[in-house]
Amino acid sequence: MPRPTKIALFEDYLRHRIASAAPNWIPANVLLREIQQMGFAGSERTVRNLERLTKWGDCGPMIFPSCSVERHHGPRTG
After folding, report:
1. Domain, as residue range, for 27
2. Do residues 47 and 8 touch, judged by C-beta distance below 8 A?
3. Within a domain: residue 75?
4. Are 62 and 56 in contact (CB under 8 A)?
5. Tell me, what DSSP letter sits at residue 24?
């Protein structure tokens, strides 16, 4: 069983804050200050990584469906 991360206790809060600000983005340093006041002892990079994954996921927008992401998959062969 994987060990819980430092940010695990704050993920729900951060995901809610990020989603509620859509389509605007809250800077990671602002989110960091908020969760530091709640007891988070990790880095801004950790917050940025979660923020990036929450916004974009591994393969495209997750909470901003109005954003279009074009991906080039190479020429179609028929």
Report:
1. 8-56
2. no
3. no
4. yes
5. S
Within a domain: 3: no
Is 63 among the domain residues? no
Instruction: Give the tokens for residue 54.
Output: 């929450």
Rounded to two decimals, the pTM is 0.67
CA angle 4, 23, 47 (to 5 degrees): 25
Question: Is 68 a member of any domain?
Answer: no
The count of domains in the chain is 1
Q: Which of 27, 13, 11, 15 is nearest to 55 (CA)?
A: 15
Query: Of 50, 60, 62, whose CA–CA distance to 22 is shortest?
Result: 62
pLDDT of residue 77: 53
Where the chain has pLDDT below 50, the residues are: 58-74
